[in-house]
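Reminder: ligand-aware prediction takes two inputs, not one.
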Amino acid sequence: MEIIHVSAECYPVAKVGGLADVVGALPKYQNKLGHIAKVVVPAYDTKFIRENDFEVTYDAWANYGNNHYQFRVLKEKTNKLGFDLYVVHIQGLTDRPNVYGYGDDTERFIAFQIAVLDWIVQWEHRPDVIHCHDHHTGLIPFMVTNSVKYAAISGVPTVLTIHNAQYQGQFGWDKLYYLPAFDLWKSGLLEWDKDINPLASAIKCAWRVTTVSPSYLEEMMNNARGLESLLRQERHKCVGILNGIDTEVWNPETDPMLGKSYNIKTVEAGKLANKTALCNVFQLDPSKPLFTFIGRLVDEKGADLLPDIFYTALQQHGDHINVLVLGSGDNWVEGRLNQLKDIFGGKYNVYIGYNEQVSHEMYAGADFLLMPSRVEPCGLNQLYALRYGTVPIVRRIGGLKDTVVDIGDGGFGVCHDQTSIWDVTHAINRSIELYNDKKKFKAVRKTMMKIDHSWDRAALNYTELYQILK
Ligand code: ADP
Ligand code: GLC
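Here is what comes back for the chain with adenosine-5'-diphosphate:
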C-alpha cells in the first residue's frame, strides 16, 4: 500500500515533541513491511533542511483566500531516513526557524494543507491512504471529501491520528474564505463549539481515527477538552494503537550521542560511566541516585508542580539524591526551576532549553525519570527510559498506564495515581528504597531493557486498519 503521512513535525527534520518521533519512525517500519510510506512536512528553516540535498518535484501556484502564492514540493534526494521525505516550501510562511508559535500559524498550516492536496491531486496515480497527524493537518479529511477542486481524490481514504486532543487549532469563521470552494451547507463538518475546529472536523470526516494508546482513547470519552461528546458519537471508527519507538535511534548500544555505549549485559558499568560524565557537567554527585525530568514545561506534563515536588524531595533527602531537569516552556516554571539552583546547588541542576544530545545523555545517565503528567496520550520518554535502563516514575494515565507496571505488582516502574506533590514525593520515597535494594534495582533494570517497544507491532496494527479501508 502507498501511505502518505502529512504532519507538522518529523524527526530529524523538525521536532518539538513526540509527534516528530512517531512520524520519523513509523513510515520506516511500514516500508519494512513492504508498503510505500512517504512523509510530507512544511519546509521550515531547520538545520536538517538546510544541510541536506533536495530536488524540486512540483512547482506551482495555489489560491489561498485572496492570495495567489507560489509553492514548491521538494524531495530529499538520498532517502536517508528510510522513507521518501517531501517538504513543502511556501515563501514567507513555512521558511521560519520554529514549527509553531507564530501569530499566523492558522494561515501557515491551512496553506500547507492546500499545497499538499494540490500536489497529490495531480499525481498520475492515487495513494491508498492519506494519514493525517493532529490538528495541523486536520482540515485535509474535510477538503478531500468536500472541496470541488479535489473531487478526483475524494475516494481516497483518510486516517487521523490524534497525538494530543488538548490542541485543536480552532479559528474563527472570518477565515473560512481561505479554504477551497465547497458546498456551504457542509460547513457543519468544520464546526465545533461555534468555531472552525480542525481537530473536530478531522474526527468527523476521516474514515478512521486513531489515538496513540488504548487508555487515552477511553479517557478522551470523558476528557478531551470539549470534544468528548463528538468522540463518543464517532467511537465506532476510533481505535487506540500504542506508539512504538525507533529502536535504531534509541539504542544504548549504538547511540552516537553517548559517551559510553552499553547493553543489557554491561548496563551497570555503562550507566555508571554515563552518569558520572553527566554529573560532572552538571555539578552533581554520581554516588547518589539521579532523578530526572525531560519534557515540555506545560501543565499537561505536571510541570507547574515540579518546583514544589523537587523542593520537597530535596528538603527531605537532599543529602541522598540528585535532581536534573531538561525542558522549556512556561516562563514561570522555568524561573522557579532556575531559582532552585541557588538553594540546592550541587544536588540539583536544570537545563532550560531543547537539546537532543543532553536528552540522550540523561536517559542513559539517570537512575529515574519522572512523568507526573495530567494528560499523556502515549508518552515516549518512559519508553526511551525503559530501553536505557532508567526506572520510570509515572502517573497511571494514558499511555503511561499502558506501558509501565509498578514494582509492587511485579513490574519495573514506580506508579502513582494523582498529579500531586504528595503522590510524586511518595513515589520518590519508594524509588529511593528501590535504589538502596541493589539486587532488586539491578534486576528491575534488566527486566526493563528486555521489553520490546519497537514499531514492528504497531506498524502491523496500522496495516490492519488501512486494509479495512480498501
Ligand atoms: P510530547 O510529545 O507530549 O512532548 P512525548 O513523551 O511523546 O511527549 O515526546 C517528547 C519527545 O521530546 C521525546 O523524544 C523527548 O526526549 C523530547 N524532548 C522533550 N523536551 C525536550 C528537551 N527540552 N530537549 C530535548 N528533547 C526533548
Ligand atoms: C503527543 C503526546 C504524547 C505522545 C506524542 C506522540 O505529543 O502528548 O503523549 O507520546 O504525541 O504520539
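DSSP finds 16 helices and 17 strands in the chain. The pocket of adenosine-5'-diphosphate (ligand 1) is lined by residues 17-19, 21, 294-296, 326-328, 354-356, 359, 378-381 (CB under 6 Å). We will return to this case in the review session.
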